[in-house]
Design brief:
single chain, mainly beta, 9-stranded antiparallel sheet, two-stranded antiparallel sheet, 1 helix, globular
């Protein structure tokens, strides 16, 4: 007698729980490190949720570094209205770390220097490793 109600409630609750929504750059971003441009992802609900990787053969949809994505060192993520502000440090082999600042608003990520790249939503950060041609 209560079985249909319980089943309906479980289906309703399952539909309400949404998976984490990451925001990722579509194209690599020059972060001012003097190195290659990087792809960046952020989880707005996580106050330290910033990751980066070097793009692979298909741009930011793949990666050439690994074994996985790199967590942004000292990452800070804040959400204010419809904007997400992120900061993280990028350690350099030589010299001081590069501090990356960016703001996501609407469908783009921008830096204080005026660089802008489009962003997309992702359900997971399972970015496959597909090195660019000649880097295998």
């Amino acid at each position: 007698m209560h079985r249909p109600f319980v089943l309906s409630l479980l289906v309703l609750l399952a539909g309400c729980s949404s998976p984490a929504q990451y925001i990722s750059t579509v194209r690599p971003l020059d972060v001012g490190s003097g190195g290659p441009a990087l792809c960046i992802a952020v989880l707005p609900a996580d106050p330290t949720g910033v990751w980066w990787w070097e793009p692979g053969a298909t741009g930011c949809a793949s990666r050439s570094t690994g074994p996985g994505l790199f967590k942004g060192d000292r990452g800070v993520v804040t959400k204010s209205g419809d904007q997400v502000v992120l900061t993280f440090q990028l350690a350099m082999q030589v010299g001081p770390a590069v501090i990356v600042h960016a703001t996501i608003s609407g469908e783009e990520l921008s830096t204080p220097s005026g660089v802008r790249v489009p962003v997309q939503s992702l359900r997971s950060l399972d970015i496959p490793e597909i090195p660019p041609r000649g880097r295998r």
